[in-house]
Protein 1
Amino acid sequence: MSMQYDYKDIEKISKYKSWSRRKIVDALLSIDSDMYTQLGLESTPKEIKQTKIKSKNIYKTISKVNPRLGKLFLQSMDN
């Protein structure tokens, strides 16, 4: 991907008509991955919790594009 997206872009990305479902899911997972890689040993419990909440929102957005995959991600979060 040539552009760098972040969490505030998830809704916009999910509505791109010119992108394939796979490209949308890949972009959303890339945002999710970036959020977790920015956490570190010095991250506060609040920051970790906020990241998990954002991650769950990303997975809900993925489930709008690919219901089966989104459901799997959400189930894995609950375990």
Protein 2
Amino acid sequence: MNYLAIIHKESDSQYGVSFPDFIGCITAGETLDQAKELAQEALTFHIDGMIQDGEELPTPSKIEDVPDTGAFGHFFVSF
């Protein structure tokens, strides 16, 4: 499955990443590449916990279904 990751960036901040399908699953990196790498780790950790707890994984959102928040960008993370 490919889950949508939203990139957040302010002028004086790191590259933040959040997942609209997984509230509370966030990470950040000094560079865009680092943020993407850490996003993969964060999502994997989050989903592994959900599976261990017997929770159902959400259906991945489509970019057109997520409200425009003025985010820096987006990418997809595979699980």
Protein 3
Amino acid sequence: MNLELVDLNAIDFTDQIVAKFWMRVDKQPGDGCWNWTGKMSSSGYGRLRLKSNSGSDVCPRAHRISLHLHGIELPEDMV
């Protein structure tokens, strides 16, 4: 399984995958914090296990998925 930075364009974000992501986000009222309730990496980053378009298992970081879903692309060399 790939735990390095994952090319999110290599994942088909179906409605099912998007729902899987949002089921693990706890939006706090008032302070606006969005807490990740899913799996965490040993370095403290939220992770979500998905299948890439090629069928391989990948675990992109949760904050990168959120940015991708909101139309914000980060350079691959940024965490």
